[in-house]
Amino acid sequence: MADVTLGELRRRLGEDGLALIDVRTSHEFEGLAGAPCDPRQGHIPGARNLALDRLLECRSAVEVRALVGLPEGAEVIAYCHSGNRSSFAVQVLRAAGYEARNYAGSWHEWSRASELD
């Protein structure tokens, strides 16, 4: 399954049945910390924070699904700062039965689009 592009995410943001998960730390998500190369800090509107380290603590697909809180088969887009952590999260989510894709541009790309919140 191909990575999600900025254009696709912009079109689909807020779509019913689509869950957007930010796998960065809570401080990054809240805009209290982040990479100095990004012109702004924060998160994509509608995203939910689920840090990768919490996801990796799960020892089974059942635990992952309990943590994520979505039905098996739900469509999930994961992102982080540059697509690395979210790429790993996508593998975990897929193994737990989710239709998961990575937004490889992640916050690094989104933060540069001044017309986006």
Architecture blueprint of SSEs:
Elements: H1 6-12, E1 18-22, H2 26-30, E2 48-49, H3 52-56, H4 61-68, E3 75-79, H5 84-95, E4 99-102, H6 106-110
Parallel strand pairs: 1-2, 1-3, 3-4
What do these coordinates show?
The chain is α/β, with parallel strands linked by helices. It has a single domain, classed as Oxidized Rhodanese, domain 1. 36% of the residues lie in helices and 14% in strands. Strands 2-1-3-4 form a four-stranded parallel beta sheet, covered by helices on one side.
Radius of gyration: 13 Å
**What string gives the helices and strands in order?**
HEHEHHEHEH
What is the average per-residue confidence, as pLDDT, rounded to a whole number? 93
Number of domains: 1
Q: What's the end-to-end separation, in Å?
A: 27 Å
Shape category: globular
Uncertain segments: none
Query: Which CATH class?
Result: Alpha Beta
Major sheet attributes: 4 strands, parallel
Strand content: 5-15%
The largest sheet has its strands arranged as 2-1-3-4
Question: Any idea of the CATH topology?
Answer: Oxidized Rhodanese, domain 1
CATH architecture title: 3-Layer(aba) Sandwich
